[in-house]
Amino acid sequence: MLSVQLGTQQHRGRAERGGARCYKAGSPGTALHPAGEGGGAGEMRTLGLSLGLALLCLLRVKAEDAGAVGLDKSKVAGKWYIIALASDSEGYLQKKDKLKMAMATIAVLGEGDLKVSFAIPTPEGCKKSEAIYKQTGIPGEYYSSERGNKTVRVVDTDGKTYAVIFASRVKDGRTFHMLRLYSRTREVSPKITALFKRLAREKSFTDEMIRMLPSQEECSLDEA
Predict the structure, then answer these.
(1) Cα–Cα distance for residue pair 219/118, rounded to 1 Å
(2) Are 190 and 177 in contact (CB under 8 A)?
């Protein structure tokens, strides 16, 4: 449960937005305080405002709990290698040992949405596709309605050389999850590899679901 307090006291467990302070249950100052002690219409208006702000706080804290990280769009454009995956999809688990490193290029569109082009090596050949990812309003989170409803969010990045992306996709009434490690180069340091595996385990992926992808040369977005 969440509540809103309008005032100047500072407490831990809050997220500030537009002057309203949000608290998680159990934090100091979680009571709902109308700005005024008399009854009547003024108190009811204040209570209505407080309840509305509480809803905004709920959405804000939900986003923070989801672990989304803001993305600097000025640095995200260009070519990336997808060098590691973790997924609970049955199709992925059946073929993961045959998967190789994929490529992606990201272009930032006028309103801040992202156009992502993929080149994915498969046993049937080099598969290429494009998708538009629109902003959800939560920093670092985007969605695409192409080939099933998919939401992606940045869970970790240094802003320039790597990014860990968590994707959720709804297909045939089921929700599948995938964690991807994007890198500007074909190799990352042992530190980043360990970071990716730790984040995967934190999101309940088992070691059997994690795959570090071997490099390949036959499938590239540079091809005509």
Answers:
(1) 10
(2) no
